[in-house]
Structure formats: C-alpha cells, structure tokens
Amino acid sequence: VRTRNKMETPFKRSRRVHSIIPENGKGIHGEGRRESKGRHGSLPLLQTRVPYSVLFLLIFGCCLQVIWHGMRPTQQANAESLPSAPSVAVLRLVSLGDPLLTARALMLWLQAFDNQPGMSIPFAALDYDKVRAWLARILALDPRGQYPLIAASRLYAQVPVEDKQRAMLAFVYEQFFSDPNRRWPWLVHGVILARHSLKDVPLALKYAQAITSHATGPHVPYWARDMSIIILEDMGELEKARALIGKLLKRGDITDPGEVLFLKKKLEEIGRRIGSR
Q1: Which of 143, 141, 145, 171 is nearest to 156 (CA)?
Q2: DSSP for 12-39?
Q3: For residue 165, what are the contacts with CB-CB under 8 A and spacing of at least 6?
C-alpha cells in the first residue's frame, strides 16, 4: 500500500478527490455548492408595489389642493403709511449704546419701505415730511454718515413732483452747514437739479454760493467753488461775478497756481464783457 500511494500520479489523486464529493453538490459538509449558488443571485428578487388605494388617495389629495387654491379669494395689498419718526433720545435709548448700527439699520428699513408685500409704492406716494424727519434722525445718530444725504439728493429728489424735489433739496441744504467740508458733494447735486431740472436759477445760485463760502477745506475741489461764478455769468450778473472772483483771490485760501490763473483770466474776460456793453 505504501508503494502504491507513493507512485500515485496527480491525475489519479484528483479522480479520487472528486469521487469523494457527491454529484448533488453538497460535498463533505453538504452546503458548499448550494450556498455558492445562492450568493450569485439564484434567490428571487424582492418586488415592491404601491397599493392602488394609496395611489388613489394621493391623486385625490392633489386634486383637492388645486381646487382649494382656485377657490381662495385674491389677497388685496394695502399700502402702509410711513410712521412718524421718534425723537433722537428715544432712538439712542433703543440703540443700546450702538447708534451707528441703529442708524444703518434704520436707513435700510427706510429705503426698503416702498417695497411692501404684494405691491411697490412709488416714492412720490410717500409722506416727504416724515421722510425728512427720518433722514434727520439717522444723521443725528451717525453725523459722519453720508448715505441719508445721498438718498435725499439722488433718490428721493428724483421724483417727478416739484414740491417734493424742493423739500429734499432744502433738507440737503440745511444739513450741509453742519459739516460743509464733507457734505458739499450732495449740495453740488442740488445745484445741478435746481439749475436743470427745476429751472430755478436763483435757487441754484443760493446753493452754489453756500459751497463757495463755507466749503473751504483743502479737499474741496476748486470747480465746486467756482459754480457760483458760472451761474452768475449765466444770469448776466457780471458785476457780481467779478466781485466774487476778487473776493476769492483776496481771501488767500487758493494755493493752486492753475486755479489762480483761471480766476485771473476769468476776471479779465468779465471785465472786457462789462466794458463792451
């Protein structure tokens, strides 16, 4: 026997091993082939199906929702009036020590007040007395802030209602004197609106002369100060224009050689025009 096992070839050994495994595939432990077969998908796939009653209830619910929305009455949008502005003391108390943040929040609220649920209110429909009061309160909370003046001159003053345009320009003019060296740009815009939109040259001259007399800081451009001279020329007030130029040259706060040369040439030009009359 030992000799036969030693001389057994690999082919005979494999036949002997296969003769041990039965043909039904169970093998020695009886589960090998069946378990492998089940792993490779011989088990039936699980199939799910929604019951017809559930589908019917879903469709019926969607139909009821469409019918309910169609039968609802149309909501009417009602415009809310702008509330009156409280006092500065009340706003400072509400701000809890942070007036700058309160001022910015109020400015955003005021600017967005025309957009109300279901409608958009034109600026011309707002109460401009209340708008001016709110803008003044916001400036009192944040004196260095410029946005209330920007909104007054470039937003609320653009409505096609002359009285409301004048009200906003008057507000900018009043607030200009609190800080003329920083607030002059918005009064310059007021000069342009008064001159070209309102066709009110005396009002434009009033605003321009305020800039010339009070906005004397080093960062104020000379062309802004010269606007009153140009308007006086347009009005034919050459004598007043010449007197104003002489006043500017004598004041001594003009240090730019180019500006000094411009004023001297303008003075000579106006002198010739007066002499040719």
Answers
A1: 171
A2: HHHHHHHHHS-TTS-TTTT-HHHHHHII
A3: 157, 158, 159, 193, 197, 198
Which residues, listed in sequence order, are joined to residue 50 by a DSSP beta bridge?
none
Q: What is the pLDDT of residues 133-178, one digit of tens each?
A: 999 999 999 999 999 999 999 999 999 899 999 999 999 999 999 9
As a whole number of angstroms, the distance between CA 57 and CA 234 comes to 81
Tokens of 133: 């009061």
Given a cut of 60, whether residue 122 has pLDDT beyond it is yes
Which residues make Cβ contacts (< 8 Å) with residue 41, sequence separation at least 6?
none
Rounded to 10 degrees, the C-alpha dihedral 181/182/183/184 comes to 50
- DSSP, collapsed to helix, strand or coil, labels residue 61 as helix
**Per residue in 47-87, pLDDT tens?**
567 788 888 888 888 988 888 877 776 544 444 588 899 99
d(CA 93, CA 107): 17
197-218 CB burial, b ≥16 within 10 A, e <16: ebebeebbbbbbbbbbebbeee
